[in-house]
Specification:
15 helices; alpha+beta; five-stranded mixed beta sheet; 671 residues; globular
């Protein structure tokens, strides 16, 4: 509540910060503002002082200003010019137009104090990666998370130092800090738990040829009779039996929350690569400890007979997605042989058993897929892009987005089933657990989805809560009617309405997957959540008190949502920015087809069919006016079409690239 000079009271939630006042501040700065009400009753910030600064890195382009070099920051982080200290300015005197990453002074207005990465050409893959890291990770610093590091048992000073160092290294195109950290100090749950010897059973890994941290192996057995169940065993690397709670390796893994997989440059591993790619990786012909989930997949796709235990395994073969896909599409006796598939594949003595295992796993996945499709989940709603951006020999190129979808789907369905089975098993025995919860659609945004469906003439039932199955039914109806663009538009609108999944210590449903209970169990070499889940399971198997209470898990859920979310955000930003470079370089054929997936007075959101990215067409461009002319679209009463009927949600349109906006997103114009 603000009272102006005339004694009038104004209730406000935000204020306008004029450009001259906004200069020198960084996104997420906490400030104290002096406010002023102008003659029209608008509230402005007259001045601001810094209370605390969350971000310690900034990324932008070097520019000359008043005889010195300054930084023009990425528009997502700030505006205006950020000064550099004299030594840094002198060092970058010939770097005009190049991108750098710099450290920020922790107090006062923003000042660049040291060079972290660069100077780099702004469209170089390394520059794209640096921007993604700084923007995403700077928004989830330890002290910004409720409770901070101390809430999850991490030393604040060490944690803040590790985050700064790891973020700086990733921005500079280097790996993280996990290498060489000790995992030996600290307790391991269930150190004397019974281990079942399954080394005589057949196990295979199925992954990309380039994967090194193999954390899952599979066993499958089936009689071949349609009425008989398929026995599936999902073996997950026993990281919790090696990494002691509170060890240096554990503290670092808890700090970063997940492995960061980058297209440009090396990944930043959560766990020492000597472990995640060596001693813990489920490599063929190597004795390994595993946490094993045994399931029976019945003919109708339901799962029964879940058991969880610890076991010794020795994988018989490492199989590639490509080899498995080729075999499933064209079965031959030697289709999975090592001689046909380079370093991956089965040796002659195990070829028959390995082949039978793959057949069984494929049947289990088929049954699980049929059962999951019957749930009407959001899992298969959104159409994948045809191409993805890759970096080859330092250059950004396009590649087929999903070259082995059949084989990948087999593994994906088995992993989802294992996660679901573990969550149900833990809940049944009352074991405190980290669950992955999802409430379907965001209640505050679901009206947008309702309006979109009405505009496409497939309205939802009035006054009824919209469930995922309702959306799936409408999309399928549109597809059956041959209205593919309308189906794509409705699905894309839904992406902005679907609520975010999150971790919770409370048993929760995962509506997007149609699961009553769900957790993350299958990637303990890559996600800290899974490592926590494994520790709880080891304790339960050994009949010990679990290492984490429900209260501990609640704090971890908040922490891991934020820290793991930063990793996912960075990966998404990098992917989208690489695509922006490709579009700018005409890597796809223009004009290209698209679908109107959003409409407002300001313009249209267009989903480009081939890359699967969304661009913006301004109202001026949509009306055939010069790009910088001010204009607005006149919408009908639904808000989903223009009054002249020229543009409407779901309409097909061919477009050309106009430009990349200041955030690197594509602006398009009619072809």
């Amino acid at each position: 509540m603000v009272v102006d000079d005339a004694g009038r009271t104004h209730k406000v939630e935000s204020v306008f910060v004029p450009p001259d006042v906004a200069r020198g501040w960084i996104a997420d700065d906490r400030v104290v503002a002096t406010l002023a009400v102008d003659d029209q009753g608008r509230l402005n910030a007259a001045s601001m002082t810094l209370e605390s600064r969350q971000r310690r890195f900034v990324v932008g382009v070097v520019q000359p200003f008043a005889g010195k070099m300054v930084l023009s920051p990425d528009a997502r982080l700030g505006s205006g010019e950020i000064p550099m200290d004299d030594a840094m300015s002198a060092k970058l005197m010939h770097a005009e137009g190049k991108q750098i990453v710099a450290t920020l002074a922790p107090t006062g207005k923003a000042m660049c104090t040291a060079l972290v990465a660069g100077p780099l050409p702004t469209f170089a893959p390394s520059a794209v990666r640096a921007r993604a890291v700084v923007i995403a990770h700077g928004g989830a610093t330890p002290d910004s998370i409720p409770g901070g590091p101390a809430a999850v048992g991490l030393p604040p000073a060490e944690t803040n130092s590790n985050v700064l160092r790891a973020t700086g290294r990733m921005a500079a195109g280097q790996a993280g800090l996990s290498a060489g950290l000790s995992s030996e100090e600290g307790p391991v749950p269930g150190p004397h738990a019974e281990m079942i010897d399954r080394r005589h059973e057949v196990q295979v890994t199925i992954d990309a040829d380039t994967s090194k941290d193999l954390d899952d192996a599979l066993t499958g057995a089936w009689s071949g009779q349609a009425a008989d169940p398929v026995l599936v065993k999902v073996h997950i690397a026993d990281a919790a039996g090696t990494i002691g709670i509170g060890s240096a390796a554990d503290r670092y893994a808890r700090t970063v929350a997940a492995t960061a997989y980058f297209t440009a440059g090396p990944n930043a591993s959560m766990i020492d690569p000597a472990l995640s790619e060596g001693d813990l990786s489920l490599l063929p012909k190597q004795d390994r400890r595993a946490v094993t989930v045994t399931m029976l997949v019945d003919p109708d796709g339901s799962v029964s007979g879940t058991e969880v235990d610890l076991s010794w395994i020795n994988p018989d073969a490492r199989l590639s997605y490509a080899a498995v896909e080729e075999y499933l599409e064209n079965p031959t006796p030697t289709g999975l042989a090592k001689t046909r598939n380079g370093v991956s594949g089965a040796d002659p003595e195990s070829l028959g058993a390995v082949t039978a295992t793959v057949i069984s796993l494929a049947e289990a996945a088929r049954r699980l897929g049929a059962e999951r499709d019957a749930r009407d989940t959001l899992e298969d709603l959104f159409t994948d892009a045809e191409l993805e951006a890759v970096v080859v020999d330092g250059k950004i190129r396009t590649a087929e987005a999903d070259p082995h979808p059949v084989a990948q789907r087999v593994v994906e369905r088995l992993m989802v089933a294992a996660n679901e089975a573990v969550a149900g098993w833990a809940h049944a025995i009352g074991l405190p657990m980290l669950y992955r919860g999802h409430v379907g659609f965001d209640p505050e945004r679901v009206d947008t989805l309702r309006q979109a469906a009405a505009a496409l003439n497939v309205p939802f039932a009035e006054d009824a809560t919209i469930q995922p199955k309702d959306l799936v039914a409408l999309v399928e109806r549109l597809q059956e009617e041959g209205r593919e663009d309308a189906a794509a538009a409705l699905a894309t609108v839904a992406t902005g309405v679907v609520a975010r999944a999150g971790y919770t210590a409370t048993p929760s449903a995962h509506d997007a997957l149609g699961s009553g209970f769900y957790t993350h169990f299958t990637s303990p070499l890559r996600r800290y959540t899974d490592l926590v889940v494994h520790r709880q399971l080891r304790a339960a198997i050994a009949d010990e008190m679990p290492p984490y209470t429900t209260e501990d898990l609640a704090a971890l859920a908040t922490w891991l949502d934020a820290r793991g979310g930063a990793v996912n955000h960075a990966q998404a930003l990098e992917r989208n920015a690489l695509w922006a470079v490709l579009l700018d370089r005409k890597a796809i054929t223009w004009p290209t087809p698209g679908t109107v997936v959003g409409i407002s007075k300001a313009g249209l959101r267009i989903r480009l069919t081939v890359p699967g990215v969304v661009g913006f067409m301004s109202a001026a461009r949509a009306l055939g006016l010069p790009p910088r002319e001010r204009a607005s679209l006149e919408l009908d009463e639904t808000g989903m079409a223009t009054v002249d009927g020229k543009y409407h949600l779901g309409a097909s349109i061919k477009v050309r690239l106009d430009r990349l906006d200041e955030l690197g997103r594509p602006d398009v114009k009619p072809a």
